[in-house]
């Protein structure tokens, strides 16, 4: 099948009266270039439940003019039309449905993020995609527009957009990473794991807690450190693509397999492979990985003979794998093989106020250097307090993003109004029931944060009669002093 895919362009495909422009980009494409296609899929950012009257109208007009043409609508459910990550993820998943077809993409309509997504997918998915744009006739002195193919060579590292495969040699304890008090013991354990060659390790932790960095650390302090560290994000990929990327394929394994291709296990040979989001792999991939873990053998797609590899596997997940095993969606035998040893990273919220404050200060310094800002950004006490209160469900990554944001938008001392709305209007306290003790504890924490750990000032501000009462409360509530 030969398919044309495009977003429709609200501004250019419709006139000011919201009627379809007969010389708009979509109609022009049909008038001059559509003939050889089997189907046109027109995309909208809207959700199917809400519908899209503009798209309906455009499809009706095309159908009226070209009765024999197959034009289908696709609701992509995109919340933010300039959120590149969201658009790319949805577009990738969508394109993979057409992995066996010839896909021509009409590149012009859409926001810059939409265009960039097409570009990245074309480069990285390894599908039969071509990108086209049109030039209106008036610009080339002709009546008819021109159809121009954007010729960009596809990447020699396919799938890099979805499977973030990185072969990196980062400094282990470089100054751009904070091994804070609560994770020091975890890093100590990791060092012991690293020194026991080949033992498989499962890292647990919510997104953004630093699982990948920990996996890199295991690699760096092991005797495999001179070989590759390969990181693979296993989620969002169909079996056959993940299988061919992990294990490689032989010439002729499928139509486009023109020559043998090594997989990521081969690239990691002698080194370490980090399988992120392991809880997301299918039953089929679980079976394939089990074979690697049991016998250190891989079977490339289309091959008849297995090949030995020497790779340490470090896997990570935020999912409850035991519960998945109980529910029958994850194999017990694979689980036991993966979790020979386990490390668990705490959420940022569980790390206490002192540590959270350290993270804020750490990022103030790190980002200043990265952005080459002349001065370190100052935060008012209220801002510190708000940041410490905020639960940061996205963990260290989210805090880092917020701090980056502040560096981008502020050049003076950061005030409350400079904070993102979500932080400004959210209290970190998510309890559903009211408790006097918890409220008192919160108050003490807030006062201590505000007065940067000065107990006398915090005590006076709250109104305790004596500093001894205040100190005994700190002890009772096990509050850490920064
Ligand atoms: N202790 C830390 N010091 C400095 N930066 C950190 C720390 N922990 C996490 N980060 C930063 O947070 C971001 C997320 O870290 P990382 O990718 O290692 O987390 P993850 O748990 O693997 O996330 P995910 O599961 O979403 O892939 C990175 O930018 C990382 O540099």
Automatic annotation (TrEMBL):
InterPro entries: AAA+_ATPase, AAA_lid_NorR, Homeodomain-like_sf, HTH_Fis, P-loop_NTPase, Sigma_54_int, Sigma_54_int_dom_ATP-bd_2. Residues 180-408 form the Sigma-54 factor interaction domain. GO terms for biological process: regulation of DNA-templated transcription. It comes from the Bacteria. Gene3D superfamilies: 1.10.8.60, Homeodomain-like, P-loop containing nucleotide triphosphate hydrolases. Keywords: ATP-binding, Nucleotide-binding, Transcription, Transcription regulation. GO terms for molecular function: ATP binding; sequence-specific DNA binding. PANTHER family: TRANSCRIPTIONAL REGULATORY PROTEIN. This is Regulatory protein, Fis family. It comes from Pseudarcicella hirudinis.
């Amino acid at each position: 099948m030969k398919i044309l895919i495009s977003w429709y362009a609200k501004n250019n495909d419709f006139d000011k009266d919201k009627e379809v422009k007969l010389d708009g980009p979509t109609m022009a494409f049909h008038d001059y270039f559509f003939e050889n296609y089997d189907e046109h899929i027109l995309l909208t950012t809207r959700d199917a439940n809400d519908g899209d009257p503009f798209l309906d109208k455009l499809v009706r007009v095309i159908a009226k003019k070209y009765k024999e043409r197959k034009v289908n609508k696709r609701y992509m459910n995109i919340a933010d039309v300039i959120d590149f990550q969201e658009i790319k993820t949805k577009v990738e998943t969508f394109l993979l449905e057409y992995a066996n077809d010839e896909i021509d993409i009409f590149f012009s309509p859409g926001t810059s993020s939409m265009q960039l997504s097409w570009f990245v997918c074309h480069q990285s998915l390894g599908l039969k995609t071509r990108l086209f744009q049109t030039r209106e006739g008036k610009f080339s002195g002709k009546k008819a527009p021109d159809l121009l193919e954007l010729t960009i060579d596809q990447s020699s590292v396919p799938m890099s957009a979805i499977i973030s495969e990185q072969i990196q040699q980062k400094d282990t304890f470089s100054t751009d990473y904070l091994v804070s008090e609560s994770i020091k013991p975890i890093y100590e354990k990791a060092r012991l794991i690293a020194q026991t060659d080949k033992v498989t390790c499962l890292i647990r932790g919510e997104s953004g807690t630093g699982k990948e960095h920990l996996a890199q650390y295991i690699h760096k302090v092991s005797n495999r450190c001179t070989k590759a560290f390969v990181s693979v994000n296993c989620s969002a990929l169909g079996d056959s693509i993940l299988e061919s990327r992990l294990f490689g394929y032989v010439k002729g394994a499928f139509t486009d397999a023109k020559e043998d291709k090594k997989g990521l296990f081969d690239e990691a040979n002698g080194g370490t492979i980090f399988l992120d989001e392991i809880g997301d792999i299918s039953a089929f991939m679980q079976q394939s990985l089990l074979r690697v873990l049991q016998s250190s053998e891989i079977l490339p797609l289309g091959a008849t003979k297995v090949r030995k590899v020497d790779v340490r596997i470090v896997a990570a997940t935020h999912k409850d794998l035991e519960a998945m095993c109980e529910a029958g969606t994850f194999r017990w035998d694979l689980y036991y093989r993966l979790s020979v040893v386990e490390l668990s990273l705490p959420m940022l919220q569980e790390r206490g106020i002192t540590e959270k404050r350290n993270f804020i200060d750490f990022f103030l310094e790190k980002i200043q250097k990265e952005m080459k800002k002349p001065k370190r950004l100052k935060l008012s006490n209220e801002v510190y307090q708000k940041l410490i209160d905020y639960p940061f469900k996205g963990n260290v990554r989210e805090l880092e993003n917020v701090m980056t944001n502040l560096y981008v938008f502020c050049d003076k001392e950061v005030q409350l109004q400079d904070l993102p709305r979500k932080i400004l209007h959210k209290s970190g306290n998510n309890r559903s029931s009211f408790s006097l003790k918890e409220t008192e504890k919160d108050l003490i924490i807030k006062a201590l944060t505000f007065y940067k750990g000065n107990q006398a000032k915090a005590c006076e501000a709250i109104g305790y009669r004596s500093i001894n009462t205040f100190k005994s409360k700190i002890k009772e509530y096990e509050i850490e002093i920064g």
